[in-house]
Amino acid sequence: MAESKFAVFEGKFPCHTCKEEVTSLRLWRESLELTWMCTKKHLSKASLTMTKKDYERKNREQENRSQTA
Question: Given phi > 0 = left and psi -120 to 50 = alpha, else beta, which region is 40?
Answer without folding.
Answer: alpha
